[in-house]
């Protein structure tokens, strides 16, 4: 996958916050994504242990969601853990894994925030600025905003509002399970982001794209082959 050059990561936390504020204006909200034209959806995740990061990207056929490619990349962490600055910690190893992907990907989902972030620059938005494909944030927990609890049935959703702006949707992906927090990463609208996440959810709360990437990252961290299937790349 092509990853464009944008900026360096040798920054202090205060410099990183200022850069987030500068980059937020570059995020493109929209256009709508026609799911009928999507052939491959990817998920990406990072597992850490000590000072090491283990990043994986899993590419799934869409809409069937069978795995077609798994890529992993290990690298030392070069940025401290600071709330709101996760992207500066995780983008470098994620870029290493993304550059290995040979399949033409149509959209990338991350277990992270997009615009549902204090400076509208979560990992899914920040990384999206490096890529030529739309990105979606689908996080397990809320970082900012308030919302009304969605209904218990799958597909129920309510607005996530921060400082008077709708920054995401709180989405029930499985009946009576805790919701996920979906937000625009880059180059996609919120409605399409929600539709894509729902289309990628099968028996589990999380979309298969990021669920598979999470499991692969944990295997890589344990020293195992992140791809359990010998037929895959």
Brief write-up:
This protein is of the alpha+beta class. The chain has five helices and eight strands. The protein has a single domain, classed as archaeoglobus fulgidus dsm 4304 fold (2-Layer Sandwich).
Question: Can you walk through the features of this model?
Answer:
The chain has 233 residues and is α+β, with helices and mostly antiparallel strands. It has a single domain (13-221), classed as archaeoglobus fulgidus dsm 4304 superfamily (archaeoglobus fulgidus dsm 4304 fold), CATH 3.30.2170.10. The protein has an 8-stranded mixed sheet with strand order 3-2-1-4-5-8-7-6, sandwiched between helices. 23% of the residues lie in helices and 25% in strands. It has 5 helices and 8 strands, in the order αβββαβαββββαα. It has helices spanning 13-23, 86-98, 123-128, 190-199, 208-221; strands at residues 40-49, 52-61, 67-76, 107-110, 135-139, 157-162, 165-171, 180-186. β2 (52-61) and β3 form a beta hairpin. The chain is globular and about 40 Å long. Residues 229-233 have low confidence and may be disordered.
């Amino acid at each position: 996958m092509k990853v464009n050059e944008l900026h360096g990561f040798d920054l202090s936390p205060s410099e990183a916050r200022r850069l987030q504020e500068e980059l937020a204006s570059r995020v493109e909200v929209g256009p709508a994504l026609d799911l009928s034209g999507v052939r491959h959806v990817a998920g990406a995740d990072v597992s850490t242990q000590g000072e090491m990061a283990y990043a994986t990207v899993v590419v799934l056929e869409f809409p069937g969601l069978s795995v077609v490619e798994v890529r992993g990349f290990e690298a030392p962490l070069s940025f401290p853990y600071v709330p709101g600055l996760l992207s500066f910690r995780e983008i470098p190893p994620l870029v290493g894994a993304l550059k290995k992907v040979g399949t033409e990907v149509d959209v990338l989902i991350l277990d992270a925030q997009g615009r549902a972030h204090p400076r509208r620059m979560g990992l899914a938005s920040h990384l999206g600025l490096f890529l030529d494909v739309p990105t979606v944030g689908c996080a397990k927990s809320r970082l900012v905003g308030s919302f009304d609890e969605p209904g218990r049935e799958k597909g129920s959703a309510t607005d996530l509002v921060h400082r008077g702006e709708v920054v995401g949707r709180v989405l029930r992906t499985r009946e009576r399970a805790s919701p996920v927090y979906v937000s625009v990463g880059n180059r996609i609208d919120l409605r399409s982001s929600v539709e894509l996440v729902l289309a990628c959810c099968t028996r589990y709360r999380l979309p298969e794209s990021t669920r598979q990437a999470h499991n692969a990252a944990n295997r890589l961290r344990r020293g195992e082959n992140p791809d359990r299937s010998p037929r895959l790349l």
